[in-house]
Amino acid sequence: MEEILVVQDLTKSFIIHNLAKHIEALHDISLNLKGGEFVGITGKSGSGKSTVFKCIYRTYVPQNGQIWYNSQKYGFVNLAELSERQMIYLRKHEIGYVSQFLNIMPRTTARELVKQAVLEMGSGEDYANMEAQRMLEHFELDKELWDCYPGTFSGGEKLRLNIARAMVKRPRLLLLDEPTASLDHASKIKVRELIEQLKREGTTMMGIFHDLEFMENLCTRVYTMSNGILHDLQI
């Protein structure tokens, strides 16, 4: 399989100006993913896991290192140096990101959020409606909530909606930042079912998890992070 993502010597630091502190968040992180692989990352809170994902998604700009992504539209490109216009395109069409938190548009219903994700991929109205309904049903979101604003949802309901919105696109690369953090056991099974489906369809994925049992027999490789350094982990 061809390589989809190659991270080389990634370094990220933060400056807290009011405390005059310089914090090294990532130290020379290197890893690669081939098409269809699912790489898991575990580690304590604050170890740098989410920072790796935010550098790949380019919500953070690294100080040093390269993030080579094999894009369908642009070919092999360094995400650390790509233009904002190109990154916006990749976020819409090729790279998905699921965080623990739902960023919602005001006065947009749950159904509309998932439907809009499908429309962004260039699909028609009927297909988008069908896919939105399929995903909301899969995650067992109460039908009474489909046409409600997610601002009133519980944390677990928001997270399920967030996952549905990202997975419905079947992105080329999917970043999952603790997608099961606030879910009950039944909802975790629903997430796992879709991850397994996306793997079969060839989606390349990286996931941050604290639940080692969830990761078992799901990940191709597993790493652990501590103090901004990536280590191999066998589970």
UniProtKB/TrEMBL annotation:
InterPro entries: AAA+_ATPase (IPR003593), ABC_transporter-like_ATP-bd (IPR003439), CP_lyase_PhnL (IPR012701), MetN_ABC_transporter-like (IPR050086), P-loop_NTPase (IPR027417). Keywords: Amino-acid transport, ATP-binding, Cell membrane, Membrane, Nucleotide-binding, Transferase, Translocase, Transport. Its EC number is 2.7.8.37. PROSITE patterns: ABC_TRANSPORTER_2 (PS50893). GO terms for biological process: amino acid transport. GO terms for molecular function: alpha-D-ribose 1-methylphosphonate 5-triphosphate synthase activity; ATP binding; ATP hydrolysis activity. SMART domains: AAA. It comes from the Bacteria. Pfam families: ABC_tran (PF00005). Residues 5-235 form the ABC transporter domain. This is Alpha-D-ribose 1-methylphosphonate 5-triphosphate synthase subunit PhnL.
